[in-house]
Design goal:
Chain B: Its main location: membrane. The complex is a heterodimer of chains A (308) and B (292). Chain A has 308 residues and is an all-alpha fold. Chain A has helices spanning 3-37, 54-59, 63-96, 101-109, 116-126, 133-140, 155-165, 168-179, 183-191, 196-224, 228-238, 261-271, 275-299, 301-304, and strands spanning 40-41, 49-50. Chain A has one domain: MetI-like fold (Orthogonal Bundle), CATH 1.10.3720.10. Classes of the chains: A mainly alpha (308), B mainly alpha (292).
């Protein structure tokens, strides 16, 4: 190795050193400790004691975990596709508007900026069974509105509504994709007599398919860590005394219907201080998230990242 | 166009019919857009109206304040620790954003423009970190910060910003890829070292990308609920707006009109910033998407 290449190596290293340190301290180290801790038992005051795969065995008999997994699966199956369909619909509408497209784009985007806690509070008010305006409007057209966040059957659909409201980021990603479809393709199809639906199915959809995959994968990852809205909705709608960490007492309100996997992980770790078991739950979450990410990475050209 | 030329007789009524159909479609689309726009705006408008009512009226099903009480916004500052939460939030969001940018730009530049062994592996790891749900490493990290006695403060949220942020590195790298290599080669030919090239040539050109990354980071910190809940809930002195809002009513026994006033105050700065920086935003979001 010559002196210059050594020096260049040192320069490159100085560029990436902080990030590499960060990855080591805040990713590799805690991940390895989490794997080790998942085979132990301890709380905030005691030293980890090796128990083997006991924590993983315990999962099979944990009724709360079962409920949390069911709720998170429900969100993955409903929340993710509904948001993708909504974002595609909005972006298709936007590209067809001749006037005011910029104005409508801004309006549709803005709710994505509202802090999740503030947005959740707003929706709990909006959907309040007795006094909220939504049920008031429904009543005017002769519909007896549901109890929304106060009903075990409607609490998760209410969270989906909240997620649809804050759809702006996803909408912009789809809008860019839809605008990237070459105009000439549409013109050719129009001459062939294809109607709007045909044009969408045979031109738009195939072109934006990679974006749909991207949105699905990131949507699943997002749903796996869905925490803020579920926690705050339970606490505000339940109206219980929730002070700081005490908020975990109102997790899942009503009747566990909003108890997602991350909420259960938090409760196990920081309310029950079963830190070994919490780490086992974390490792399972990691394996699932990693598997989903691998699907994305194997398909993604942009991610593999050579400049051409 | 060709239709009219080929079949002039038949096409005259057809074009009129097509025109009418187009106009109907135009009206239909714009009506849908307006209806949706009203639905998107309603939650915020309703919240603002509630925040201007008396505490008694806020408990009813009214939408329109009988009497207007803009002083609610002053009261919420005096009756609650809102100024304190606001200060903590600004402290967290500003320092974390600045530090994250300073530590992430060089790494992103190296990943985009420098050749070195292990570059692809490092980029792969950055993506994995970005995709990792924060709950996976929560317990070991909490124990680490507790060992240093830093739980109960915002330090566990600010210190990591010194070491770059995966999402920020990813976003900046995607942006830096779009800068043509010739500019960098020209700078190198002029005898600039890599650091000087970065500071003198790349930074000025990458300003829009850095702005987008900085905005995302700022908004992320401002909105963050999980982080402050995890590390600061034991010490109210360090609470941020998100955490304070969620526990407002029960801790301070304030009325709903004041809770909504505080909620409006938490979202207002973000919306104002957005209107000044709309272009950076849209560009940033499209960069995070897929170029498949």
């Amino acid at each position: 190795m010559t002196g210059t290449s050594l020096r260049r190596g040192a320069t490159t290293f100085s560029f990436v050193a902080p990030a590499l340190l960060g990855i080591a301290i805040f990713f590799v180290y805690p991940l390895i400790s989490a794997i080790y801790f998942s085979f132990t038992e301890f709380d905030l005051l005691s030293v980890p004691r090796w128990v083997g795969p006991e924590n993983y065995r315990r999962m099979a008999e944990d009724p709360f975990l079962l409920q949390a997994v069911r709720n998170t699966l429900w969100m993955v199956v409903v929340f993710v596709p509904v948001r993708i369909l909504g974002a595609i619909g909005l972006s298709m509408l936007l590209v067809q508007l001749k006037r005011g497209a910029g104005f409508f784009r801004t309006i549709f985007y803005l709710p994505a900026l509202v802090p999740p806690v503030a947005a959740t509070i707003a929706f709990v008010y909006l959907l309040k069974p007795g006094t909220g305006p939504v049920n008031h409007v429904l009543e005017m057209i002769g519909i007896d509105g549901p109890l929304w966040f106060n009903s075990p059957a409607w609490a998760k659909p209410s969270l989906v509504l909240l997620g649809l409201w804050a759809i702006g980021d996803l909408m912009i990603i789809f809008l860019a994709a839809v605008l990237g479809v070459p105009e000439s393709l549409y013109e050719a199809a129009s001459l062939d007599g294809a109607n709007a639906w045909h044009r969408f199915r045979s031109i738009t959809l195939p072109t934006i398919r990679p974006v749909i995959l991207f949105a699905a994968v990131t949507g699943v990852i997002y749903t796996l860590q869905y925490f803020d809205q579920a926690a705050v909705a339970g606490s505000i709608a339940g109206g219980q005394a929730t002070v700081g960490a005490g908020i975990s007492q109102s997790f899942g309100y009503p009747e566990g219907s909003t108890f997602t996997y991350p909420l259960w992980l938090y409760t196990v770790g920081f309310r029950y201080s079963a830190l070994g078991y919490a780490n086992a739950l974390a490792i399972v979450l990691f394996v699932v998230a990693l598997a989903v990410t691998v699907i994305l990475l194997r398909r993604a050209k942009a991610f593999s990242g050579e400049e051409s | 166009m060709t239709v009219t030329l080929e079949r002039p007789v038949a096409s005259a009524p057809a074009t009129r019919a097509v025109k009418r159909q187009n106009r109907l479609a135009w009206i239909a689309r714009h009506s849908i857009a307006i209806a949706l726009a009203i639905m998107f705006v309603t939650p915020v408008v309703y919240l603002v109206l509630l925040s201007l009512m008396t505490s008694d009226q806020a408990l009813t099903s009214d939408y329109w304040p009988n009497t207007w009480h803009p002083e609610n916004y002053l009261r919420v500052f005096r009756a609650t620790p809102l100024p304190h939460y606001l200060l903590n939030t600004v402290l967290y969001a500003v320092t974390a954003t600045v530090l994250t940018l300073v530590s992430s730009v060089p790494a992103a530049y190296a990943l985009a423009k420098l050749r070195f062994r292990g570059r692809n592996l490092m980029f792969l790891v950055v993506i994995c970190v970005m995709m990792l749900p924060p709950q996976v490493v929560t317990v070991p990290l909490y124990l680490m910060w507790a060992r240093y006695g830093l739980t109960g403060s915002l330090a566990p949220l600010i210190i990591p910003a010194l070491f770059g942020d995966a999402f920020c590195i990813f976003l900046l790298r995607q942006f830096l890829l779009t800068i043509p290599g010739e500019y960098l080669d020209a700078a190198r030919v002029d005898g600039c070292g890599e650091w000087r090239t970065l500071l003198r040539v790349v930074l000025p050109m990458a300003r829009p990308g850095i702005a987008a990354a900085g905005l995302f980071q700022f908004f992320y910190c401002w909105n963050d609920y999980y982080g402050p809940l995890l590390y600061t809930s034991e010490n109210e002195q360090s609470w941020t707006l998100s955490l304070g809002l969620a526990s407002f009513r029960t801790v301070h026994h304030v009325d709903w009109n004041l809770v909504t006033a505080a909620t409006v105050l938490a979202m207002a700065p973000l919306i104002i910033i957005f209107f000044f920086a709309q272009r950076s935003f849209v560009q940033g979001i499209t960069l995070t998407g897929f170029k498949g």
